[in-house]
Specification:
Blueprint lengths: L2 H9 L27 E4 L2 E4 L3 E4 L1 E7 L4 E4 L8 E4 H20 E6 L4 E7 L10 E14 L2 E6 L1 H4 L6 H12 L4 E8 L2 E7 H15 L9 H22 L1 E9 L3
Antiparallel strand pairs: 1-7, 2-3, 4-13, 5-6, 7-8, 8-9, 9-10, 10-11, 11-12, 12-13
Helix pairs in contact: 5-6
């Protein structure tokens, strides 16, 4: 499985990087899971490039008035202040709902605790996605009506990565967070799977420490510029989260 499929699988239940490593306590049990989430659920999206998109990807982010993020969009050294509420949230939702349906079609929660997905390596607007089913890369456990825990099989998820250094790096990332609590809220008949501030805030702190260790010597100039932009954003996030009263990032699925 190519590296990007790992992240498509993570995106099944959260848009923000939803990773975990399996352990014996969270292995699927013999008794079939009895839960409304069992079954196949589809990604949905509607809209256009002019008016924007709505759909499965949903970021709900409430911050103090005037909170913004600084981005050097042109690489000139002069950052632009981008408001979180007025710009970042609607843009993230629109772009997410434009592109997610091109790489993730559906998610299946099986009665024996596995999460399967229909995904694509789509990367060309002129070519229709070629869909394939990935199975056994993630498992789940129902904690309550409003909470599940999810684990990713790290060994299986990285078995097709050929570069040893890249494989080791991805394994370390996947193993660093443990089993992830994922909230479930029903929007009518559509389940919304999301992580909240309580989970994301410490994860961001770990990400800040990690991003300084990412090697950049093999990056070409364009990749290096993009990486520095992302790094700059990541380093601002702890302060922004301190000004955050509500944070929910996830996907809403439909039959």
């Amino acid at each position: 499985m190519k590296l990007n499929k790992i992240f498509y699988l993570m995106a099944m239940v959260c848009t923000l990087g939803f990773t975990a490593c399996g352990d014996d306590d969270d292995a699927p049990k013999d008794d079939p899971i009895q839960s409304p989430i069992v079954g196949t659920w589809n990604v949905w999206s509607q809209g256009n490039d002019y008016e924007g998109y709505i759909g499965s990807v949903q970021l709900n982010w409430e911050v103090e008035e005037g909170t913004s993020i600084s981005l050097d969009l042109l690489g000139t050294g002069t950052p632009t202040e981008i408001p979180i509420k007025e710009t970042v949230v609607p843009l993230a939702n629109s772009l997410g709902n434009k592109f997610l349906p091109k790489v993730l079609k559906s998610v299946t929660f099986t009665p024996d605790g596995k999460i399967n997905a229909v995904v694509s390596d789509y990367d060309d607007d002129d070519i229709a996605p070629e869909w394939e089913t990935v199975k056994g890369y993630a498992t789940y456990k129902v904690i309550s009506d409003n909470l599940i825990s999810v684990s990713i099989d790290v060994e299986k998820a990285t078995e097709d990565i050929d570069d040893p250094a890249e494989k080791a790096q991805i394994k370390a990332i996947l193993k660093s967070y443990g089993t992830i609590p994922v909230n479930v809220r029903w929007n009518g008949e559509k389940p919304f799977f999301f992580v909240d501030k309580a989970y994301v805030q410490p994860m961001i702190a770990a990400l800040v420490a990690f991003i300084d260790k990412v090697p950049t010597n093999a990056m070409d100039p364009d990749d290096f510029q993009t990486f520095n932009m992302v790094k700059g954003v990541v380093k601002q996030l702890p302060g922004i989260m301190d000004k955050t009263s509500k944070f929910e990032a996830g996907i809403e699925l439909t039959k």
